[in-house]
Design brief:
This is Allophycocyanin subunit beta. The protein is an all-alpha fold and 169 residues long. The protein folds into two domains: 32 residues, no CATH class; 131 residues, Phycocyanins (Globin-like). The chain has eight helices and no strands. α3 crosses α7, α4 runs antiparallel to α5 and α4 crosses α8. The radius of gyration is 18 Å and the shape is globular. The chain starts with a helix and ends in a 5-residue tail after the last helix. 25% of the residues are buried. The structure holds phycocyanobilin (CYC).
Length: 169
């Protein structure tokens, strides 16, 4: 698992180089947004269940057939599994936000996920929609919390959807 700093150090150490201008620039960006990253993580921790609920509600409004017989969220067990997955995406994204690096998502979340979803017939398209909804809900909340530039929030959520596959519904 890596963060921005350990990632840079290992890249430069492999080739025995001092940190150059590119490295210094990315460190500046990382530390410059550091306060906002911590604020975002604190907001997520304090509001995780309402963020997950809001995301689920918007997903089922947009793809109502998920809840109908034959839909993948039909039955309480599967509905709960879906919201639990959303909670995983949120929690691990909060780690990635603090790290400024998506390694933790690749290692802990995405590894084998597509295969699991395929074998259980969990549809990837609506999952991608849900993750994007979650990103938007979170960014809106963070803006009202006084974070002016929330673009750093895109990174982990976009990483998740890109890696999970851009399947359209
Ligand atoms: C921390 C990393 C981690 C992840 C990401 C994870 C995901 C994950 N989601 C699963 C199931 C599931 N995932 C969903 C999700 C959905 N269904 C829908 O209709 C929606 C599109 C979507 C929610 C957005 C559902 C319904 C199941 C249960 C499927 C079944 O058993 O039939 C399963 C199968 C085992 C289980 O049910 O617990 C795994 C492993 N597990 C992990 O340990």
């Amino acid at each position: 698992m890596r963060d921005t700093v350990t990632g840079l150090i290992s890249t430069y150490d492999i080739t025995g180089r001092y940190l150059d201008r590119d490295a210094i620039d990315s460190l500046k960006v990382y530390f410059g947004s550091g306060n906002d990253r911590v604020k975002a993580a604190a907001y997520i921790s304090a509001n995780a269940s309402s963020l997950v609920k809001a995301t689920g509600a918007a997903l089922y409004e947009r793809v109502p057939e998920l809840l109908r017989p034959g839909g993948n969220s039909y039955t309480t067990r599967r509905y709960a599994a879906c919201l639990r997955d959303l909670d995983y995406y949120l929690r691990y994204s909060s780690y990635a936000l603090v790290a400024g690096n998506c390694d933790v998502l690749t290692e802990r979340v995405l590894n084998g996920l597509r295969e699991t979803y395929n074998s259980l017939e969990v549809p990837v398209g609506p999952t991608v929609i849900a993750i994007q909804i979650m990103k938007d809900v979170l960014k809106e909340e963070l803006t009202t919390q006084g974070i002016d530039d929330t673009s750093f929030v895109d990174v982990p959520f976009d990483h998740l959807t890109r890696e999970l596959g851009e399947v359209s519904v």
